Inverse folding.
């Protein structure tokens, strides 16, 4: 038997979440963002559950080729564009849409020998200062791109740094609108947070990622609790040992948790080599036997300890949910000082996956 740890992927939740997003933004087309192996869910196992999307957006050309080889014939957008001139041969061969965010990409595109012109997304830097052309450059860049025989349709895009927090989108949206006012082209701006909370950004295409997987763009579950989204991934393991400790006894490496009263401890077959965050502190929520209990002490490579003092009926072999249907990944992430995105992406290849 393998270790009892298992990730379960609920494809009906994925389809449901896409439907919910569709209802939020009926006028816009949807790029389902499936970068990073579909946020750790496994691109090849999940994409068909999103087949009603208008396109898939990702970063890695290998993932784009995988989608094509598995039969997806619709649009695929490369969110970082390409890196080398030879990438353009693959973009041509697999009919990919590419972001263009700097002049070197534009030059490579101008020089490439392609079988047909490609669709491009011209990216505007509206304050994130990561990728994209400055607003004042955009007009000139647009005209150079328009003049290239290798360019077919052009869409204008930007990405928000603060759609998920109080700073919002007002100032980048104004910068984008001002920079693009004289250009007649489709527009694509919204990530998950903007799709949920900033209707004026919806434009022609939206680009939701994390909400498709049923986690929160803010890292706080309660921000999406009313959005009718369902968690797609559940991570389960089992209790493999029980320890009864006394006041003063400690648990785990470094003795970082010390009991101040007699306690019943459950050892769970899940550790940081499975993708559980090692820096999660004592008190991080864990779901067992229909209720929340908590992590105690340092997370090991293959195990972690939880408090079973209030759960005397729980025995070796009892199922434990590390996150999922009953325990939002956001709650675990928040306790560990990160966001659900990171935990989902970090689930290790050694964790077996069941698809529902
Ligand atoms: C990752 C990404 C998205 C999706 O972000 P979420 O917060 O997961 O919705 C959208 N656009 C770009 C450019 C991205 O890199």
């Amino acid at each position: 038997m393998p270790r009892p740890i298992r990730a379960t992927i609920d494809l009906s939740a994925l389809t449901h979440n896409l439907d919910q997003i569709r209802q939020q933004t009926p006028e816009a087309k949807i790029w389902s963002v499936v970068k990073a192996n579909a946020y750790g869910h496994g691109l090849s196992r999940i994409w068909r559950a999103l087949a009603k999307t208008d396109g898939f957006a990702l970063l890695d050309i290998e993932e784009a080729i995988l989608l094509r080889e598995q039969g997806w014939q619709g649009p695929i957008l490369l969110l970082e564009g390409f890196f080398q001139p030879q990438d353009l041969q693959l973009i041509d061969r697999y009919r990919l849409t590419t972001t263009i965010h700097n002049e070197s990409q534009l030059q490579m595109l101008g020089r490439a020998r392609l079988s047909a012109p490609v669709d491009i997304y011209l990216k505007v830097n509206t304050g994130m200062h990561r990728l994209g052309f400055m607003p004042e450059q955009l007009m000139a860049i647009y005209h150079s791109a328009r003049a290239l025989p290798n360019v077919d349709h052009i869409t204008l895009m930007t990405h928000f740094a603060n759609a998920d927090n109080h700073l919002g989108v007002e100032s980048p949206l104004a910068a984008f609108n001002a920079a693009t006012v004289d250009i007649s082209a489709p527009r694509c701006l919204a990530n998950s947070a903007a799709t949920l909370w900033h209707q004026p950004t919806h434009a022609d295409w939206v680009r939701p990622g994390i909400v498709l997987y049923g986690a929160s763009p803010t890292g706080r579950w309660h921000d999406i609790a009313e959005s009718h989204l369902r968690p797609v991934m559940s991570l389960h393991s089992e209790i493999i040992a029980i320890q009864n400790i006394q006041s003063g006894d400690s648990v785990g490496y470094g003795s970082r948790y010390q009991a101040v009263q007699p306690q019943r401890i459950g050892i769970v077959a899940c550790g940081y080599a499975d993708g559980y965050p090692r820096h999660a502190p004592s008190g991080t929520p864990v779901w067992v036997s229909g209720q929340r209990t908590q992590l105690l002490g340092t997370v090991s490579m293959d195990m972690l300890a939880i408090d079973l003092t209030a759960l005397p009926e729980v025995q070796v072999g009892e199922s434990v949910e590390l996150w999922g249907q009953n325990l939002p990944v956001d709650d675990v992430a928040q306790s560990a000082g990160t966001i659900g995105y990171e935990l989902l992406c970090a689930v290790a290849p050694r964790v077996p996956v069941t698809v529902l």
User: Anything to note?
Assistant: The chain has two domains: 12-219, 233-355.
